[in-house]
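Thread title: Can someone regenerate the structure for this chain?

I was given the following input by a collaborator and told the matching structure tokens would be attached. They weren't. Posting the sequence so someone can regenerate them.
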Amino acid sequence: MMKYARTLFVFPLIGFFIGSTAIYSNVSSEAFQPYPSRSARASQPPLNSERIRTKFGNYGIEVLTNGEKISHYRKSGEVSPPLPDSVRSAGAFPIKSIRVSSLYSTENGEKTTRTLAIVVYPGAPNPSLSEEHKAILHGESIGEVFKKNGWQIEKQHLLFGEIEASPKFAQIYARMGNIMPSKLAIHRYRLFVSRNDAGFHYATITELHHPEYLDAGALRAIYKAEFERRKSKDKDYRTILEIAIERIENR
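Best answer:
Regenerated them for you:
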């Protein structure tokens, strides 16, 4: 019988305010999920790093924001707004930290973002993950770090969908090779790792994909019935993308 580290998962309820930004996380009964069953973990698709390397011939990662605390994030000189009633009544408390990274391929010396990954850590990792977490905070790829250290990686899917083309995503389009405003496929999931009969929830990840890499149809082909069950179920991603864009612009 597998023993699991039962860590309370903090489901992000993000408040985004025009002119100043406050970010909080909400404890939700919907988010307190068991570790995925062994049968559900029997076959896992390739990692993004593996898929990008196969499709485009090479792979790299650039970390744009790494482990920054965002409990009361604000721009210089701004005053954080009051805690919204909807967040206060839900018993919310601050998210610990966030990482935004560009998973890219290179051609003729030019980097093209294939996946923009926004990683939210629910809290301090289990001590069993300290070596891997240190490497990740130093800029290494999450999937590759865990895989090379003998961990099995599983995803508990929260959302599949598309975001409509919008001028506000200009910074993302620029990183994706100055593409025209386009629909972008989005995938949100909880990342679990397991080794030696112990399993842990490590982070919740939102991925935004270049249309030449993965579109909604490609995600449907990869994840099949799970795609249909989870499409457009979670609305938090819009404000998470606002956060990612702000970090890119402020670099």
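The CA atoms of residues 64 and 251 lie 7 Å apart.
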